[in-house]
Amino acid sequence: MKRTFLSLILLVSVFAVHAKTLVVYYSYTNNVHNIVTELTKQIDADVVRIELAEKGLDYAANNYAIGSALISAIRNSPNDAASYPAIDPVNVNLADYDCIIIGAPLWWSNMAAPLQTYLLHNGAAMAGKKIGLIVSSASSGISGVEGDAKRLIPEGDFFNPSLWIRSSQTSGATSMISQWLNTIRYDEVAKVENVPADQNIGKFTIFSVSGAMVAKDALSMKDLEKGVYIVNGKKICIN
Q1: Do 22 and 36 contact (CB within 8 A), yes or no?
Q2: Is the dihedral of CA 166, 167, 169, 175 positive or negative?
Q3: Residue 235: per-residue pLDDT
Q4: What per-residue string of b and e applies to 48-59 under the rule 16 or more CB within 10 Å gives b?
Q5: Domain extents for the chain?
Q6: How far apart are the C-alpha atoms of 239 and 8, rounded to whole Å?
Q7: HSE (side-chain half, CA atoms, 13 Å) at 66
């Protein structure tokens, strides 16, 4: 989505633009699907559902033995792309999005394997973006899923806390989602600050809107060309 950023007479003034959000999720039992349906009633977002390339498998058979084997393969060789299951192609340009919310089922204390595959191939393109994590599980804690997300998106700017919705709570997820959005101040994440290039910004890594690192440990933006950058999770317009 193309956006026009206006040059203001007062360079230190601040104006807001709504961020474009992408929701990426995987769902076998449809718990996460139902959660995402409720989420998109409360926020404006594009949605991508991840699907495994191999069809017709009964993941519930033998106490979800297939899923267990997929997670074991990743645990044994997390840096080997061959350890991750193949998924259907996803045609989405992550550069178009400021915020990405991940809807993840918990499989044996880890993020569902198909979603890990997507993040393995796309996590680097999420650098500098706001990342939200919603996890569905029957009972176990979600720290393993959070660890997977941060391993696969090492330069992501994660919302804190993540949202944990137990399977038994899915039908009542509306209020939990609303409370979470308020807690992470979702409505404030889309602010774009219009600032002079020589303004001291502290010591931050600067990313382009496409997620590429353009400066590390920068103290100001005076050497950058005019344009829009992501600094500390915020969009900054250099005028």
Answers
A1: no
A2: positive
A3: 66
A4: bebebeeeeeee
A5: 21-188, 190-238
A6: 9
A7: 12
Could you tell me the pLDDT band of residue 232, with boundaries at 50, 70 and 90? Answer: low
DSSP labels, 85-106: PPB------GGG-SEEEEEEEE
Model pLDDT for residues 26-44, shown as the tens digit of each residue:
999 999 999 999 999 999 8
For 108-199, where are the E strands, in sequence order?
110-111, 130-137, 157-158, 163-166, 191-195
CATH numeric code, 21-188: 3.40.50.360
Structure tokens at 51: 């699907």
What gap in Å lies between CA 177 and CA 232, rounded to an integer?
25
- For 139-176, write each residue's pLDDT tens digit: 779 999 999 999 999 999 999 999 999 988 988 899 99
